[in-house]
Amino acid sequence: MLSAIPLQEGLAWGPAGHRIVGHIAEMNLNPEVLKTIRKKFNINHLANVANWADVIKRNPQKPDVLHYTNIAVNHRTYNQKRDCPRKRCVTEKIKEYERLLMDPESSRKTRKEAFKFLIHLVADVHQPMHLGHKKDRGGNEIAVYFEGKPTNLHRVWDHDLIFLRGMSQRQFALQLNRSITLENKNQWGGGTSGDWSNESRALVLDYGYRLEFFKGRELSRGYISGGQKIVEERLQRAGIRLAEMLNRLLNNTIKLERKS
Q1: What is the pTM of this model?
Q2: How buried is 135 (Cβ within 10 angstroms: 0-12 exposed, 13-18 middle, 19+ buried)?
Q3: CA pair distance 103, 161, nearest whole angstrom
Q4: Which residues are 10's β-sheet partners?
Q5: What is the largest CA-CA distance in the chain?
Q6: CA 247 to the chain's CA centroid
Q7: What is the pLDDT of residues 63-94, one digit of tens each?
Q8: Considering Cα of 42, then 44, then 50, then 56, what sign does the dihedral take?
Q9: Which end of the chain is more exposed for a tag (fewer CB within 10 A), N or C?
Q10: Phi and psi for 214 in degrees, rounded to 5?
């Protein structure tokens, strides 16, 4: 992992974080899968469409998709019937778009949209505050100060805990990717969106909500340094898992097309 660095160099998880996950995932795609993505969907780089799912939220005809999951208070693990009965949450939507992307009967437009949603939602489910409490809207209602500026806890995790150290987003992603070991990949691989939701839930309960302050509501340097390390690993895990998912789903598609 990268070492702690000065606080003033933070940049957004929002657009930047999603693009970084896209870059890491692309670095771990099978060459044939990457070629298929470019040919079938006319998408040259995953990072270029990593924020599409946020952009279309402004469209009145936007799909009914939530980018978070509310797990019931006093519970640490996800239960679909209790926490997402309408299957609109990020945990269930990842499963839905996996099925659509893999379905050869779906139209190219449907599969392309599913592909773009997956790039975005896999990153979202790895952001701990997206598995926070409904009562405070995943930290949006918790006022804090970061670097002397008023903000909220969700924004801190969405926007302030990535430190690029003067690098571009791609350079930062490359550095994160270089520090991922084979052991990491083996440990992080597999699992479901439910498993990843439970990871984020544990992090938000055990760290995210356990705030440390100095000077009133100013987040402590210790809290920020620890949060930075968590965010970096969540970006890494999201990128590796997204690549593994796309390799699996699109490899199946390639095999089916060869047989036809």
Answers
A1: 0.92
A2: exposed
A3: 37
A4: 163
A5: 67
A6: 17
A7: 889 999 999 999 999 999 999 999 999 999 99
A8: negative
A9: C
A10: -140, 150
